Amino acid sequence: MIQPRKLRADDEIIDIINDDYTILPLLSRFSIPLGVGNKTLARVCSRYGIDVDALLLMLNYIRTGIIDSQAIGKVSPVEVVAFLKNSHDYFINYKFAHIRKNLIAALDLEPNTSNKLILDFYDTFVKKVQEHFKHEEETVFPYIDALMSGRATSYSIDTFRRHHEEVGDALTELKNIILRYYRTTAPNLMYDVLVDIYNCEEDLASHSDIENNLLIPMVLDIENRMAK
Predict the structure, then answer these.
(1) I need a labelling partner for 26 at 20 to 30 A (CA). Which of 11, 18, 60, 106 fits?
(2) pLDDT digits (tens, 9 = 90+) for 1-14
(3) Is 23 in contact with 17 (CB distance < 8 Å)?
(4) Is residue 84 helix, strand or coil?
């Protein structure tokens, strides 16, 4: 498999998207608009007040799985937190509701005994993710803001690291329930739902990877330097 190339600030956004359309949701969470013509990442970021180093760090990490050791030193964890907050909003207020709406439409085409089980399982998954995000919003992110402002607190990022759960695992179970037990003579809608679930699962995994492999090490480094 060919390794994706490393993106640069002088790359045109339209070329980046045409090369890998799967980064569209990531761009949206940085509030990068459509209709930017042939502008480069650097120009668009400058126009809309976006930290281009933070954007490139996360895009390149998600695309290649490689952490740029030089770029990470230029990025504040506050920028990563801002991205993660936007991601929470995307999942809670758009993606999960979108999947649920289409899931109900698919289930309604062929009423059977497994339908309630499938929907209840999905709703339980969403509730668990909401609780996970709430903890980050109310405890972890405020701690990072306090740390960056020099305010003392008894919390540490290691507490978050030790208790950080992967929230997308339940989607694997949901996919298996649908694939093994859902029967229908009109499967097109459910196939669309499954594609959405697969995409969401990958998106949540990327979200967790950014927390585990970018945010936590960045904050640990700051904690260690402040402790000296």
Answers:
(1) 106
(2) 567 889 999 999 99
(3) yes
(4) helix
The alpha helices in the chain, defined as continuous H runs, are 13-19, 24-29, 41-48, 52-64, 69-72, 77-90, 96-108, 114-135, 141-148, 157-163, 169-181, 188-210, 216-227
CA–centroid distance for 213 within its chain? 13
Q: What type of residue sits at position 80?
A: V
Q: Considering only CA atoms, which of 2, 1, 26, 3 is closest in space to residue 13?
A: 26
With 0-12 CB in 10 A as exposed, 13-18 as middle and 19+ as buried, what is 218?
buried
Handedness of CA 195, 198, 200, 206 (dihedral sign): negative
Q: Judge contact between 59 and 23, C-beta under 8 A.
A: yes
pLDDT 10s digits, 106-128: 998 888 888 898 999 999 999 99
Rounded Cα distance, 224 and 39, in Å: 40
Two tokens, residue 148: 């960056």
Q: What is the number of other CB atoms lying within 10 angstroms of the CB of residue 37?
A: 9
